[in-house]
Amino acid sequence: MSATSPDPQALFPGKHFISTVLEALETKTAMSGTLARRYLQRAAMAGVIIGLLYATYYAVVAAFASVPVGTTTLQPLGRMVGGFVFGWALVFIYYSRSELLTSNMMIVSIGAYHRRTTWGRALRLLGLCYLGNVIGGLFVAVLLRFSTLAEGAAEEQMLLSVEHKLDFVSSGATGWVDLLIRAVLCNFCINLAMLLVYNGLIKDDLTKSLVMIVAVFIFAFLGLEHSVANTVLFSIVGLREGIDLGLAAGNVALALVGNFIGGGLLIGLYYAYVNDDSRWLRQQQPPA
């Protein structure tokens, strides 16, 4: 490299992020293989955390919605407070080292780009992670089914949300596109937060936590679509009131596709490509 060559760190500032993700992928791949049962348990814990915090979100919204202000209520404020509370779900998942499907979409995509995993192994990891998330969410749903925690106003808010989410599917192509876009933006926000957490520039835990909270707040307040959160919500409502399984499955399927585009492609593959210095390094080699 000549004295006038640009600094590789300036040209490819995300190399630390990529290396951190690839290290995390090695651990996840090993666990999902020889330690699959333990990996499933770590994924189930993420489902439990999502279930508890998502139920809390609706309880907070319901509490504020019960406060009259003139001809309206404080429900909009409740959605803001609830979104902030729900934002802690990602913090709890990250610091408990639990496994969440949507952030793993980014990780396996980067790994596949750098040929540190195959798409077959990546899909196996994602499938096992989603299964664990569902098991954890279903566990919370069963507990709520046999308690009074989700009764009354909180349950009404959940029912309204489920009706809105299923309407995307039943309304045809327009609703499908709307749902898909919401799912893309949802996981774009989630994995943008994880990029900031992994890139090594943020050193303190408070800032990392705030980054994750804000990302989830955006998704909750704007009504974006998260495949795991939707699965857990449908499980809670389905066990209590019943649900149209076909529409629920359609919602989750579209959310999965959108989440992968937002997190796996727009964050994972995008940052893997723009921080790939292999071709540039070859060009810097002096001719033989």
Description of the structure:
The two termini are 14 Å apart. The chain is built from 12 helices and 2 strands, in the order αααββααααααααα. 79% of the residues lie in helices and 1% in strands. β1 (68-69) and β2 form a beta hairpin. By secondary structure, the chain is mostly helical.
Characteristic terms for this protein:
288 residues; mainly alpha; 12 helices; 79% helix
Average pLDDT rating: 93
The unreliable regions are none
Report how far the terminal alpha carbons are from each other. 14 Å
Instruction: Quickly give the structural class.
Output: mainly alpha
Helicity range of the residues?
A: over 70%
State the shape: globular
* SS elements, strand count: 2
| Major sheet characteristics | 2 strands, antiparallel
Radius of gyration: 21 Å
Q: What is the overall number of helices?
A: 12
Which strand order do you get reading across the main beta sheet? 1-2
User: Helices and strands, in N-to-C order?
Assistant: HHHEEHHHHHHHHH
Give the SSE layout.
Elements: H1 8-11, H2 15-33, H3 36-65, E1 68-69, E2 72-73, H4 75-95, H5 101-113, H6 119-145, H7 153-170, H8 173-198, H9 205-222, H10 227-241, H11 245-274, H12 278-284
Antiparallel strand pairs: 1-2
